[in-house]
Amino acid sequence: MNKINTRKALNPAYRKHKPIRKEVNNFVTQLKECLVTIKISDQNNESEEHIKDPIKKFLQSTFYQNHLVNTKDRIDLAIYSGENAKSDVAVIIEAKRPSNKSEFLTNESLNRKALQELVLYYLRERIDYGNNNIKHLIATNGYEWFLFKADDFYKYFYSNKALVKEYEAFKSGLKDSSKNELFYNDIAKKYIAEIEDKLPFVYLNFYKSDFEKFSDAHLNTLFKIFSNVHILGHSFGNDSNQLNQAFYHELLYIIGLEEIKEKGKKVINRKTESERDYASLLENTIFTLEDRDYLHNVKTITGDDKAFEVGLELCLTWINRILFLKLLESQLSTYHKGAKEYRFLNSEFIDGYDELNNLFFSALAKRTEERHPKFKNKYKLIPYLNSSLFERNELESETFEISALNDDKIEVYSGTVLKDVKGKRFKGKLNTLDYLFKFLDAFDFATDGTEGISDETETKSLINASVLGLIFEKINGYKEGSFYTPAFITMYMCKETLRKAVVKKFREQENSEIDNFDDLKAYCHRFFKAEDTTRFNAIVNSLKICDPAVGSGHFLVSALNEIIAIKNELGILVDAKGIPLRCDLYIENDELYITDSQGLLFEYNPKDVESVRIQHTLFTEKQTIIENCLFGVDINPNSVKICRLRLWIELLKNAYYTKENVLQTLPNIDINIKSGNSLISRFDLTDDLKDAFKGKEVNYSFKDYKEAVEQYKNTNDKKVKRDVLNIINEVKNNFKSSIDKKFANKLINVQKEYNLKEQQLNNLKQFNETITKAEKEKLKKLKLAVEKALKEKEEIVNNAIYHNAFEWRFEFPEVLDEEGNYIGFDAVIGNPPYVQLQSLGKIGKDYGTMNFETYTSSGDLYALFYEQGNNILREKGLLCFITGSAWMRSNYGKPLRNYFNSKTTPIELIDLSDCEVFDSATVLTNIMLFQKGKEQTPIKALRLTRKDQKLLKELGNYFEANYIEIEEFTDTAWIISNKELFEIKRKVEEQGVKVKEWELTINRGILTGYNEAFIIPTEIKEKLIQIDPKSSELLKPILRGRDIDRYSYDYAELWLVATFPSRNIDIEEYPAIRDYLKSFGRRLEQTGEKGSRKKTSGKWFEIQDSISYWQEFEKPKIIYPNMTKFLPFTFDNNKYYTNQKCFIVTGNNLEYLTAFLNSRLFKICFEENFPELQGNTRELNKVVFEEIPIRQVNSEQNQKFAINVNEIISLKEENPNANTANLEKELDQMVYELYGLTEEEIKIVENA
């Protein structure tokens, strides 16, 4: 049986949450009372009804006061999702008497009546009531509890088509009995038997429980397994996918910022002047910058908001340090069992900004033995960290340190989490730094929570590294409203990409027969020697992963965790001696969790040998992976700081005490995370770097450069670090100066060639020699070459866009070979910015001059990131991005689609357009995973719809079960449907002939050039005919795109003055129309001049377009709009003309075609083929329409469809609101029959 360890069944983040002892005690009391009552009831041989009441009371007295707990139909007990029976059932409970052993489950046999009943009640709720909000199913006799997750019932029962079919037959009375016993014995029993060993469950047994002897850890687990957090999935305020609103808004307030909504996006601004508190960090900083005239020292930040930009960057630097120290304080406190002397972030220890500055630079930045005597004793318990986080940065050097701020008092936030002595919300003023410390102290920053119980009166919300990352992602993206990628997305993307990348590495270096990760696991587990483990680790550690828009570093943290998980699964996660760790390791909500054999969360104990071994191994592994494997770039310097902070925090989680009883120093990981514009480089990746190491003035070789970068990461000596940094900077400056030489040399060479040719031709002139045309052309070309070289040099040297260029060619020597040639990254992964190029102004246009194949002025910035990501990959490297999905269907996405088809091998594509992935914005997204280089392999594709939104958290499993394989996409819209619909669409397409191969003509409606003159109301039409009856020859009824509906149109009584150039009309024969048109003066002239129509060869009175096909409008035809949300098609036999917002189709069998185009089958199969515009509008352009394959019919078949089509049209003409649903349904059925759809396929189409 698949019995789950009770602790492991809980969300590991929730396990770190400490409940209040008072609540736990109440829970135990209520549970004991429940058991006593059940025992008495069973001894008295009372019915099962008497078992329900104590269970109901127990539930309502603990976690479910705000939920209805009652029966429903035959369900013994149900916990509803709300307070009344109108809400959905969330938990189904089947209760049995303790003495009813035969019908109740056992650990050895689940297939008993109690479970069979649960299956029946689940299917009734799921199928009959459409309830997809069930969370748990429980079988209990009071003493024993079997807990099943509804997700598992969905997987093993609801997804079993054979079971559902039998249930439907049973429900419909098609079996030989309608009694439930038949379902239990003949149906449920059979299907449970098939999966009995697989069905996961949690088992609790209270027969011999002595709750007084339970440890806090045991009570903690028991309390949580019954909680509404676990049973109903309620939030407990510590989900790393969710923003902690209380923490976020009060932190913004203390900094001096506020969040507002602007153009539908949440953005962060400086407070308005009237709302500012000048004691806030930001206002205090800006005042000091302006008052002491520091701003003129800062050259790198410019613009009208310079004071704000500089002030915010300084504030974020300081807040970063303080938050890191809060995590460190929590860590040290945990290591030392809560000893108060390790709590240093408080006003008693740090009494102002001066003292805080001393902590930064006189303590944390210096080894204990190097500290000044005046600080040695005070800071004796605070470790040296060797982190550049605690070195004065460039901006502080140009301006000031935090000690320059005034120690003022600030009004406390109106929604503060702080409480006064009476337990009420605090009001009044506090010293800003004291306020910040007290605020941070109101939260739990434990990086490794123990599974205990809190003796506090109120539980503190846990703030972990992921929550901090989420908060800083938002603060950093204050201008554009950044989108923090949820953990379940980053986890999925890293798992899919990195496992494939590791498989590639092993296939190249170990065994070419390794095809997938399962193969790799089997391969690695065959080896057990230490040298094998060392070799395998070296292969994994050689991975090079880059996020070119790194933001807060979320993807790199996910990658770090995933690589450790990969090593664990391969059996190569070992200590320094090559001995494997004795623990379980897994990732949940983007956090790495370690549990022992009893399922207890790992807690570092410096006095326990095994604990030290695990902690040391994890620290070393993280350091190795961060230094060797993870790289990031961001245009925002603040993002770079946050990313470095996130990676340091990941190391801090596993910081350990050395044999000298000193906390292990942190490595210099900052060099792998750099600032710059990922899309812009002066150097090409193929440029030769040899010139940078030539000349007497060059002191270092390329080998020196690589070694210096390596040495920088490993040193913890500040002087060595500075010396090494000087070497690195000198080499990089040589690189940059060599580019000037490159362009100068190119200019010199082409200028020399031009001068030589010009001299030759001048000599010929002097001797009256004939100069050939070819020679003149050559001189002209050389002159153009000179101008081009000069322009290139000026562009590179002077264009502002290059000032922040990022040089992929040499910035990361880890992806260069020993000769300095660019190799590239194994994986590029991330979430590039969601920005339209048009919104970037001049910079957006500049990108268009940089040879990006994916550039289009109306496109998005992420298209360029896809291309650049592919550029920086090694051959057959992998890229995985989550981006906007408009490129899949839009016209402006065509260059990107072409690029994917020609330069990459798409491996996986997940269309999330119908899901809300981000909390703060409605952004249509997709996940794309491709390999560099073109190979012909099918693409695994999936479309996730809104109704399956909750499955996003299980994206990996859902993808594997539901992806479809598409042989190739074209450059037209990339369409993905679910598996069932995909098969139906393929069936439909295989029977069809492309519309362009039919004997049909498709034409656009009429573009007049000036509708005000050429489209007239009936009133004017009547006047013109009254003046001259011959006018009626040129006046035609006209429909617009907005007038078209399914099988009908809403005629607006408009008429077209049909003076088509192709008719060669003599306007003098129509004096009334001539005079009417003349009244518009020069506005009708077709000269292209201001105030006239565009220039054509047409006459002043003629319509702009020639319309040689005007007679097609007089024929029976189909009319449809060119842009629509609803895909309406109508059949017209009344000689209506249309404007340019419509298309018309003429030819044979139009009644059948009208029926098919209006059918549900057409919409389900082909709607996505048409490009999507804003607001879910589709563009029914001719090119796409002609590519759609539709089954052809003969005239006899057409006539059958014509009967219903004509009847619908007649009814609509008589009454536009006529109900024709039945007739349309008949047509749908005729279409299904024509295509040979089965009942099951019809049901899928109808329910889609």
Task: Report what the structure shows.
A hairpin with a 2-residue loop joins strand 8 (about 255-260) and strand 9. The chain is built from 41 helices and 36 strands. It has about 1250 residues and is an alpha+beta fold. It is globular. Helix 3 packs antiparallel against helix 4 (about 50-60), helix 25 packs antiparallel against helix 26 and helix 39 runs antiparallel to helix 40. The chain folds into 7 domains: about 1-230, no CATH class; about 245-475, no CATH class; about 485-540 and about 555-630 and about 655-670, no CATH class; about 690-805, no CATH class; about 835-975, Rossmann fold (3-Layer(aba) Sandwich), CATH 3.40.50.150; about 975-1000 and about 1150-1248, no CATH class; about 1005-1145, no CATH class. The longest helix has about 50 residues, at about 720-765.
Indicate the proportion of strand residues: 5-15%
Query: Largest beta sheet, briefly?
Result: 9 strands, mixed
What structural class should be given to the helix and strand makeup? alpha+beta
Kindly report how far apart the N and C termini lie: 37 Å
The overall pLDDT average reads 91
- Any idea how many domains? 7
Helix content: 40-55%
Reading side by side through the largest sheet, how are the strands ordered? 16-15-12-17-18-20-19-21-22
Number of helices: 41
Question: What gross morphology would you assign?
Answer: globular
Unreliable stretches (pLDDT < 50, length at least 5) are none
Whole-number radius of gyration?
A: 37 Å
Q: Count all strands and give the number.
A: 36
